[in-house]
Amino acid sequence: MKKLLLLLLLVLSLDAFAQHDPNMGIIPAPVSVKKVQGDFKLSSETIILTDSPECRAVRFFAGYLRKAGLGSSITDINLIGKKDGVMKNSVTLLTNFKDEVPKEGYELFIDENHIVLNGRNAGLFYGVQTLMQLVQKKNDGTATIPCAAIRDYPRFPYRGMHLDVSRHFFDVDFVKQYLDLMAAYKLNTFHWHLTDDQGWRIEIKKYPKLTEIGSMRAQTKIGRAAGVDSDLYDNTPYGGFYTQEQITDIIHYAEDRYITIIPEIEMPGHSVAAMAAYPELSCDPSKSYKVRETWGVAEDDVYCPSDDNFKIITDILAEVMDLFPSRYIHIGGDEVPKDAWKKSEFCQQLIQDRDLKDVNGLQSYFISRIELFVNSRDHNIIGWDEILDGGLAPNATVMSWRGEAGGIKAAQLGHDVIMTPGSGGLYFDHAQLKSPQEPLSIGGNAPLWKTYAYDPVPKELDKDKRKHIIGVQANLWTEYIATPAKAEYMLLPRMLALAEVAWTPTANKDYKNFAEMRIPHHLAHFDAEGINYRVPTAIGAKDTTMNGGKFNIELASPVEGATIYYTIDGYTPRETDLPYTTPLQITVPEHNTIDFKTIVITPSGKRSVVTDMKLVN
Ligand code: ACM
Q1: Measured at the alpha carbon of residue 582, what is the angle toward residues 576 and 586, in degrees to the nearest 5?
Q2: Domain layout of the chain by residue ranges
Q3: Three-state SS for 251?
Q4: pLDDT digits (tens, 9 = 90+) for 441-479
Q5: Cβ(526) to ligand 1 under 6 A?
Q6: Which residue has a Cα nearest atom 3 of ligand 1?
Q7: Does this chain's domain 5-152 share its CATH topology with 544-616?
Q8: Spatial distance between the Cα atoms of 616 and 249, rounded to a whole number of angstroms
Q9: How high does pLDDT run on average in the chain?
Q10: pLDDT-based confidence at 12, cuts 50/70/90?
């Protein structure tokens, strides 16, 4: 190891060869990157040396090399007595090393003859992800990795991505692909929104009607005109759920990628699908309930907080806790419609008997009683920030979505908090540009730069309380996302910005470097892999009006290998138009306007929206 370090120090002093991009294309940007001259060549002869052949990160890396047709045989260092790991053409993955690396961190040294990666568990896995991002595949079947020394660890321990599978159902293969994407960008928590008014998606053996009845809706609302839901329905039954066997399979898949899955079982609101299956859960079992066919909050349907119902709900939670290894269970708690509680004699009596103030007190009673049960099973609850109303359950973690106020309040009270405010660009069901060229969305505007700019630690939070912000998450609600292609479109590339918010030290964040130097390479990868994403507009193209006689137009492609096409006469550009290849000098005659429009078309045929720059003289 000493020999290797000396060698590295020598090459590090030649830092003048630092590549153009100080982050070497890596997303999320690491804590420290030192680029050095030269490349390591990966070939079919490359061997993996390790002190932990059974480590999931080691097996993951070997699997990656095998798929790429590169050397993937694993040799146990302990068996060959080569503890320093210095062997030509080797990649050494070490979990037992002296240096201190922060939790989930890693150190990666690449020179022309060896690669050495130090990290424990998730740390080693994240080092592998960085290494994989650095691989440059060659046409001859080999690949190179540029030499460098990287030290890295995350800013936050909780780095989450959410998926709503109730409004629309996404199958096992899609969920696995989602986990693959998360893992590649060092996100470690998958918040699985499994139940809501529009569908119950998890098999519960003790209450089979939850999926027999609750997973199917008769039809679905379609379309949205002028921001208002239409009156059109598709007249097509819609449903789907995961068996416990499928869930276990997905949990193992996530574990292999160091991802914890937090299941969300919504209560006491957002629960119409469950009430359609078991009307006794409601405050008025004489009413008939059907799995909701439209969006928005079901205004007067909520679980009734009776002892019998607590028995059903805790039975469900017990099965969920047996299934998922996560320490956290998300119990929802948002947007609870309280009218039914106001009208219910039982609830009013309960408020009196328990000396509660009002229906908010009843909500607090409900959540605290659930928390007591969950805590008794050595688990903890997470809830949306409404669980603060009427008093926060003693050990609850709060997910702050209605801005940051709830998160700040909870952190000041000493509770852990996950920031996920829609106002911070973390609702990925919001549009990526306010434009009719974008697909239908729930509304809002969360462009890439906005997600990127978000800082999860509010300035107004007392310094000693900042440690309670354990992380950040983005949410993908799927009312208006019915297909995998659209889910990918809404997710990417914003998830990459989220990853950098969650991982990278604030001082290393640089939007220009992220969007212009790193993103294009990653999008080219998605393009080649058949993963959908939003194609950004050409770098340098704007929707604006500019005044003057002479204009220099300098553009760059936001996706490596894509072509920018343009028109100067107001026509919508397409692949039959002029490709942009070199900066343009445009002279606009006096009293004239040139309508300069661009589109980006990628190698797989994906298209950006059209930009429109009016050059006025
Ligand atoms: C939420 O968006 N209702 C948590």
Answers
A1: 85
A2: 5-152, 158-503, 544-616
A3: helix
A4: 998 999 999 999 999 999 999 999 999 999 999 999 999
A5: no
A6: 334
A7: no
A8: 60
A9: 94
A10: very low
CATH 3.40.50 is right for the domain spanning 544-616 = no
Q: Which atom of ligand 1 is nearest to the CA of 401?
A: 4
Q: Which tokens is 289 given?
A: 């309930």
Known catalytic residue: 335?
yes
Domain 5-152 class, CATH top level: alpha beta
Q: How far is CA 74 from CA 77, 124, 285, in A?
A: 9, 15, 61
For the cut 70, the answer to whether the pLDDT of residue 4 exceeds it is no
- 601 bridge partner residues: 563, 607
- 552-563 pLDDT, tens digit each: 999 999 999 999
Which atom of ligand 1 has the smallest separation from the CA of 384?
4
Distance from Cα 402 to the centre of ligand 1, integer Å: 8
Phi, psi of 380, deg, nearest 5? -125, 155
Residue 16 has pLDDT above 90, yes or no: no
pLDDT score recorded for residue 504: 98
Q: Tell me the pLDDT tens digit for each residue of 254-299.
A: 999 999 999 999 999 999 999 999 999 999 999 999 999 999 988 7
Q: Please report the pLDDT score of residue 87 as a whole number.
A: 78
Q: Is 384 near ligand 1, meaning CB less than 6 Å away? A: yes
Mutate to test the pocket of ligand 1, among 477, 478, 480 (most ligand atoms within 8 A of CB): 477
**Could you confirm whether 196 is annotated as catalytic?**
yes
**Polymer length of the chain:** 617
Decide: 334 in ligand 1 pocket, CB within 6 A: yes
335 CB under 6 A from ligand 1? Answer: yes
Residue 310 — very low, low, confident or very high, per pLDDT cuts 50/70/90? Answer: very high
- The single residue of 114, 168, 191, 270 carrying the catalytic annotation is 270
Active site residue 479: no
Cβ of residue 293 lying under 6 Å from some atom of ligand 1: no
Fold classification of 158-503 is: TIM Barrel (3.20.20)
- 116/109 Cα distance (integer angstroms): 5
